[in-house]
Amino acid sequence: MHRKVGWCAVVAWAIATVHSAAGSQEVKTVWDGVFTEAQAARGEAAYLEECASCHSRDLAGGDGSPAPPLAGDTFLEGLAESSVADLFERTRTTMPLDSPGRLSRGKYADVVAYIFKANRIPAGAEELGTDLVTLAQIGIPKRPPGK
Asked: Which of 30, 52, 28 is nearest to 111 (CA)?
């Protein structure tokens, strides 16, 4: 009986430790630098080639086109409470409008990185990846934490 109680205590301690560690982890956001300058530069080239004809060169939305803006407060407000995975998958599965999914996953990540840069989100040391599980763990708040 003593061994059983001891084992239960160890298991309870382990579960509490895991939950405590998970609860204390800071949530990663785009404001933590989730893409590189080089990736955003590649993304700009891809954006100008693949996206600018509808969304405009300055990401303000298309003149006379229903294409929404991809920069500014309204754009960021529309992404609030979503994750990078949401934006990545929406872009990948719906764009370009005439042939969604035509680009490589890496090129879509580059375009998303450029969109972040155009929204004055700071670059970091690592490139934005394409793994949806990882991207789902990166939030997109409208403003940097604490502002």
From this structure: 52
Residue type at 123 in one-letter notation: A
Q: Which helix (H) or strand (E) holds 29?
A: strand 28-29
Examine residue 76 and state whether it is found in any structural domain, yes or no.
Answer: yes
Helix pair angle (37-50, 105-118), 10° resolution: 100
The total of structural domains in the chain comes to 1
Domain-embedded: residue 17: no
Range of the domain at 67: 28-139
The reply to whether 89 falls in a domain is yes
CATH code, 129 = 1.10.760.10
Structure tokens at 46: 């891809």
Closest C-alpha to 111, from 130, 97, 124 = 130
**Cβ atoms of residues 47 and 111 within 8 Å:** yes
Q: Is 112 exposed, middle or buried (0-12, 13-18, 19+ CB in 10 A)?
A: buried
Taking only the tens place, the pLDDT of each residue in 75-111 is 999 999 899 999 999 999 999 999 999 999 999 999 9
The answer as to whether 78 is a domain residue is yes
The closest alpha carbon to 105, from 136, 132, 67, 68, belongs to 132
Amino acid at 113: A
